Amino acid sequence: MNSPTLASRPMAVTGSLRGQLGTYIGLAVVLLGMVALFSTLSDYFLTVETFVTIANEIPALAVMAVGMTFVLIIAGIDLSVGSVLALSAAVSAAAILQWKLAVPVAAALGLITGLLCGAVTGAVSVAWRLPSFIVSLGMLEAVRGGAYLVTDSRTQYVGDAISGLAAPWVGGISAAFVLAVALVLVGHLVLTRTVFGRCVVGIGTNEEAMRLAGIDPRPIRIAVFAATGLLAGLAGLMQSARLEAADPNAGVGIELQVIAAVVIGGTSLMGGRGSVINTFFGVLIIAVLEAGLAQVGASEPSKRIITGAVIVAAVIIDTVRQRRAGNA
């Protein structure tokens, strides 16, 4: 009686691996297709300088997308990551310029700020059973106000105090990009190889079943939001290192880019399914799209329209995929 079940397990695992491989290939084809398209439209796109520039501009987006992947998998959303980025950078700059603290201490304060912001968002949504959309929307405004207060509504120029993150390594690639790739790999391993990752997927798939299995989803939810805030704080440091300044207006609208990258990577907005590696592909697609549109001379309104259309297309594809899976 057990043999059919046991025999079906390898088949299920094989099917899952094939599905993941198919998704990887599909995203890679889309990415290469975009590179080929923009290389045809612009004589300057297919150059080492272009790809180095893209690599050095995406670390902040990439690390926030890692956290957002976990948030969407538990069927949540965090709209405050852009504001948290700005506040974390502002706190670090104030610690260096006004409080005269050592750079490592200032950086740690920025990271702690992001962690606390994320933890508050998670705790409030869990304690009062409120939609994370509403809570994070309120945090978006409150945290942005905090960034203005800390900086006195002025850009704080930190110079080369934390420029080490943006310093070029091999071939001009920055340390921040290397760190972002490392965090993508760590996030992938946590999601796919740890009990915590399985609990995250389980909460997004069927939270009530997790409760019946004796697992309290509340601390896991809070931990996911806290980690996302921490990564947003790191993104703030990365951006400050690249620009050598902390701008209270930094990160305005970036939460939409983060969510877009995660959704383009195939993470379901309904929860229960996602991949950090696929999210990184989504980040690359967004970055190549923006760089390519800029090089072909597309206006800012046109770029926003095209990017929005890509997001809607990704959501439609995800919906169709879920319906087909449900009918299978």
UniProtKB/TrEMBL annotation:
Places the protein is found: Cell membrane
This protein's record includes keyword Transmembrane helix: yes
UniProt keyword terms in alphabetical order: Cell membrane, Membrane, Transmembrane, Transmembrane helix
InterPro entries linked to this entry: ABC_transp_permease
UniProt membrane topology term: Multi-pass membrane protein
Chief localization: membrane
GO terms for MF: transmembrane transporter activity
Residue stretches spanning the membrane: 21-41, 61-89, 101-128, 169-191, 220-238, 250-269, 276-298
GO cellular component: plasma membrane
Short name of any one Pfam family annotated for the protein: BPD_transp_2
Organism domain of life: Bacteria
Keyword Membrane on entry: yes
Name this polypeptide is given: ABC transporter permease
Organism: Xenophilus arseniciresistens
